[in-house]
Design brief:
The complex is a heterodimer. Chain A contains six helices and no strands. Chain B has three domains: 125 residues, Topoisomerase I, Chain A, domain 4 (Orthogonal Bundle), CATH 1.10.132; 107 residues; 107 residues, V-type ATP synthase subunit C fold (Up-down Bundle), CATH 1.20.1690. Chain B is built from 18 helices and no strands. The mean pLDDT of chain B is 85. The chains are: A mainly alpha, B mainly alpha. The interface between A and B is medium-sized, with 22 and 17 residues. Chain B: GO terms for molecular function: proton-transporting ATPase activity, rotational mechanism. Chain B: V-ATPase is a heteromultimeric enzyme made up of two complexes: the ATP-hydrolytic V1 complex and the proton translocation V0 complex.
């Protein structure tokens, strides 16, 4: 990240931002004749199929969670392997760090299953092709809940991975530190659960029903 | 993402670090009366056991140091084998310092008329390069460059600034210091391209090394024919004392003047408290080790590899001092040369 904000790229980024800002302001100010036709975009947005949003939500829930878990496992795993060369006793104890990371992926899978059971077929209005507003709302809710769970688990996985890697190194140097760092790791893995809880509450409002 | 490439090497380095000799080890080693005792102690009580096991009876100090060097290169090589760019480049930079040391060792050995084998035996394996044996047959600076250095990474450090012709003792010292200065500056440029963590830690460590370099040159140049302007040219273009402190160091003529400059810097104030001439040097070593220890407290950066190599080197220096003291039966001076931190 610091590499991007370095040296010659700063004016380029600044120019891009200015250009985007001008585009947005000009587009908003002059109704109808601006660069961007907001009314038309809004219509376009409301006609997006709620099943598309639902599917994206489910994909985000499982995909981002697994990415977080994998990230955590390779951070922990590589340190664990290196440390275990000199102190083999830590391997089985520190597998628990890897399991913590794995749990993050399981949260994502659980949410994905809960979300996919919500999906039911509701036909759109045969005349206009539009969906009923409760159906649209259900689509957005599933999307938001999947995204919440996915992002929470992504960062939770990284967090547990970094702590787990330190745990392996600390345990190799001094065995008494293991339990202490494990407590920190448990707090780290609780972060993912917050995302899961919010995701479940969000998705409980989502009902695909015929009206 | 650091760990995907470098996690294994980092953990390996930390594993090695936990097996360094401790305060207690040094205390017990100091009680040994013969080199055989030292060997037995290292074999039973430390991680050197597999390296010193095969030493035959009469043990010479050189043999023990060679065993230490074997362990050093074994540990270092595991890192090198696992490393990919940019860590591999970083580790290469670490070896350049040893290459300079080896070069100087070879040149000094040549001046004293030692055989090629005896010289190569003393060289550190980390900084070994193929044309090292060509160093001993060169008779002038130009020849040295052409025969030995042109294909090594040191060539770029060498070319610009060395104008001397003959290889006498003063010139060798000059070559060492010029090369080391260029090396430090180049390393600093390289580290500035790294990620933020590495950059910050390495800046601190290299600044300290640059200060140490400057202070050493100043102390060693008293009573030689090195002019003040030349001395100023040997200092690096960075460091905690740069630029003001270096400018003042260049004009010093006695140890007391150096001390008066050092007092102004909080980190060096401790060094000025004793009248013993070796105290500053020893104090600088302790300071460096402390800085390296702090670097090891952080994770996910390259500075730990630098710190690791410094710790290795320090341990070898300690053992070298210890074995020499025991071999020459001067145990009273044991404490002066052994440096460690908890």
């Amino acid at each position: 990240m610091p590499g991007i904000l370095h040296g010659r790229s700063i004016p380029v980024i600044a120019a891009l931002w200015t250009f985007t800002l001008v585009l947005l302001v000009r587009g908003t100010r002059t109704e109808g004749s601006g660069f961007i036709d907001w009314a038309r975009l809004w219509v376009l947005f409301t006609r997006i199929n709620p099943y598309f949003f639902s599917a994206m939500g489910i994909a985000a829930a499982v995909g981002l969670s697994v990415a977080g878990a994998a990230w955590g496992i390779f951070i922990t795993g590589s340190s664990l392997l290196g440390a275990a060369v000199h102190t083999p006793r830590i391997t089985s104890k520190n597998l628990i760090s890897v399991i913590f990371c794995e749990a993050v992926a399981i949260y994502g899978v659980i949410i994905a299953i809960i979300l996919s059971t919500k999906l039911e077929y509701v036909p759109s209005d045969p005349d206009t092709g539009a969906f009923h507003r409760t159906t649209m709302m259900a689509g957005y809710a599933v999307f938001a809940s999947g995204l919440t769970c996915g992002l929470a688990n992504l960062v939770c996985g990284i967090c547990v991975g970094v702590v787990g890697s330190s745990c392996a190194l600390a345990d190799a140097a001094n065995p008494t530190l293991f339990v202490k760092i494990l407590v920190i790791e448990i707090f780290g893995s609780a972060l993912g659960l917050f995302g899961v809880i919010v995701a479940i509450i969000l998705s409980s409002n989502a009902v695909f029903e015929k009206v | 993402m650091f760990n995907a490439k470098n996690g294994f090497s980092e953990a390996h380095v930390r594993g090695c670090q936990t097996k360094r000799l401790t305060k207690q080890n040094y205390a017990e080693l100091s009680r040994c009366d013969t080199l055989e005792d030292i060997k037995t102690y290292l074999q039973t009580m430390s991680d050197y056991s597999e390296y010193v096991r095969d030493l035959q009876a009469p043990v010479r100090p050189v043999d023990i140091i060679e065993c230490c060097r074997k362990r050093q290169i074994a540990e270092f090589n595991i890192c090198c084998q696992q490393a990919s760019s940019p860590l591999s480049n970083f580790l290469e930079y670490l070896t350049y310092g040893y290459m300079i040391d080896n070069l100087v060792l070879a040149l000094n050995g040549m001046l004293r008329g030692r055989t090629t084998e005896a010289i190569l035996e003393k060289c550190s394996p980390i900084g070994f390069f193929d044309s090292l044996s060509a160093v001993v047959v060169s008779s002038s600076v130009q020849e040295l460059y052409r025969l030995a250095l042109v294909d090594t990474p040191l060539a770029s450090y060498f070319s610009s600034s060395i104008k001397a012709e003959d290889l006498d003792e003063l010139n060798i010292e000059l070559i060492r210091n010029v090369l080391y200065k260029e090396y430090l500056q180049d390393f600093m440029v390289f580290c500035n391209k790294m990620d933020q963590n590495t950059r910050q830690l390495m800046e601190k460590l290299l600044s300290m090394e640059a200060d140490r370099h400057a202070i050493r040159i100043t102390l060693n140049s008293f009573g030689t024919e090195l002019s003040k302007a030349d001395r100023r040219n040997l200092y690096t273009n960075f460091g905690t004392m740069y630029p003001d402190g270096f400018a003042r160091l260049a004009n010093c003529e006695t140890v007391d003047e150096v001390k008066r400059i050092l007092v102004a810097y909080p980190e060096f104030r401790e060094l000025t408290k004793s009248d013993d001439p070796h105290y500053i040097d020893r104090g600088l070593r302790v300071l460096e080790l402390e800085a390296c220890g702090q670097a090891l407290d952080e994770q996910f950066n390259f500075a730990i590899f630098y710190a690791f190599v410094k710790f290795q080197e320090n341990e070898i220096n300690n053992l070298m001092w210890l074995t020499e003291c025991v071999a020459q039966r001067q145990k009273s001076s044991l404490g002066e040369g052994i440096v460690y931190i908890q």
